[in-house]
Amino acid sequence: MIPALAFGAGAGVGLWLVLTWVLPPRPALRDRLAQIRARPSAAPIVVAEDVAWVAVWGRIFVPGLRMLGLPGATIDNDLRITGRGTDSHLAAKALLAVAGLLAPWLLQVLLALGGRSPGVQVPLLAGLTLGVLGFLAPDLDVRAKATRMRREFRSALSAFLDLVWITLAGGAGVEAALTDAAAVGAGPAFGKIRRALRAAQLTRTTPWATLRRLGDELGINELAELAASISLAGTEGARVRASLAAKAHALRTHQLTDAEADAHSATERMALPVTLLFLGFLGFIAYPAVTQILNGL
User: Does residue 284 form part of some domain?
Assistant: First the structure.
């Protein structure tokens, strides 16, 4: 009964994905009119690239997954900061899920050719488990890399604040200070900041507005706070050098706190293998004595 239900559900999902790809749903007239009347949204500052072979092999699954609301706002921000395309991410989720579902059955065929067959229940449960893990693995990988890259971005942002503060102290204007400070640094974080400032020049918008958009796209609140502070200097003529220096100091303090927390957690994780090794050594020493006692009873 369980294999029949699983096969039926899999066949239904596969048929739905094929129909979604062959006959995509038509939007309602009201939605079409709303799209025409709505103002075109600004192009994202950070542009992610799709992996060619993943998008080609998994493009049949992308429309169906988008109809389910995937990947979500949080994963979308994580994809932007890691530089992955949304279509490639969804295609990778689908391909890994399909590979996880099919791998136990291929092993089942090889065992059957060798004269050994574990039955239907084992590959069915293993396929479902591996399929779920394969579907969730890209999300976990993207979240881990996005967390690491956000930490690196905050580290570069503290250096960028120091450079802006020094340039402002030298008598430069706000926009010139931002441009000069971004041109000095290197790395992915400074590259994204330079791209945002270049977009502000091309679209004739204020640089703090594009920096705020960049912070919203990447999910970095410190960048949005920086844009708010710089906007006071650009619009109200406020002196923000002390505020920028304080923000840079706060970012460095936060980074030191995170580094100490990571060091403590790594130390705690190392305690477990040492404890297990010690217990194994005690068991190795006590085994002869315990054996003699049990044999003497």
Answer: no
pLDDT tens per residue across span 58-88: 777 777 788 777 888 888 888 888 888 888 8
* Residue at 108 is within a domain: yes
Which of 259, 181, 289 shows the shortest CA–CA distance to 226? 181
Please state the domain count of the chain. Answer: 1
> How far is CA 153 from each of CA 83, 86, 159, 297, rounded to the nearest angstrom?
14, 21, 10, 68
DSSP state of 170: T
Q: How far apart, in whole angstroms, are the C-alpha atoms of residue 22 and residue 24?
A: 6
The CA distance from 79 to 44, in Å, is 13
Distance CA 16, CA 65 (A): 11
Domain range for 105 is: 2-23+43-147
Note whether 20 and 63 are within 8 A (CB).
yes
Note whether residue 113 is domain-resident. yes
The upper half-sphere exposure of residue 244, i.e. CA atoms within 13 Å in the direction of its Cβ, equals: 27
Asked if the structure places residue 133 within a domain, the reply is yes
Q: Model-level pTM? A: 0.70
